[in-house]
């Protein structure tokens, strides 16, 4: 019997007092009394509600139960409200972070670009250092092969007419032989060939190509000048003598372009001198 909502049957709020119960019963009875054309079952239910709520013992128990249920419902509603507020706060926080991320995105893009630029510069620096190491290694190898000056030519040109790079110089001179090193400086360069003969040939031919080059010279072509033996007369007849090794003079060819006419006499003297040494004369 106590499972019904007696206050609601009488149209009262929960925990209404006895006076309110009596007043509500009188008003509802006038409306639902069978003698007034009301429903018998409804009137009987009103009587049950009035009798139950006017019993102090039953009303106290019933009110305690309602209070407990009401507190639970209130707590449940408060929890739901708190959860709703927490969910709303979390949603607002996520939205705020997303907005901050979107605002910071251009800065992140700039940082990425700066990082890529730094990486590119480091890679370029590493390539330059690697190229320098390779050139130094080639130069070291060429030094081991002998006098590097005899394998080096100096080339200069007029910047107003044309300009050159390592590659254009290699393309122009590699027909004479393998080129190990090209060292640029303003409008001039030094080319180191793997063979002295290649450098000599390049200087001979390109040195006369004045329409293209301002100057092409062999940096250090040194040959020993053959000296005619001295004839001395004395006891026992005449005899030939040769200068000692420490008195042997050297001649360095001019640094201007070398022609065949200039170089040929020196080569003939060197060959004659070597031939005499080989024959033990």
TrEMBL record:
J domain location: 5-66
Any one GO BP annotation for this protein: spliceosomal complex disassembly
Ranges for region Disordered: 70-89
Keywords: Chaperone, Coiled coil, Cytoplasm, Nucleus
Subcellular location: Cytoplasm; Nucleus
Predominant location category: cytoplasm
Name of the featured protein: J domain-containing protein
Organism: Aphanomyces euteiches
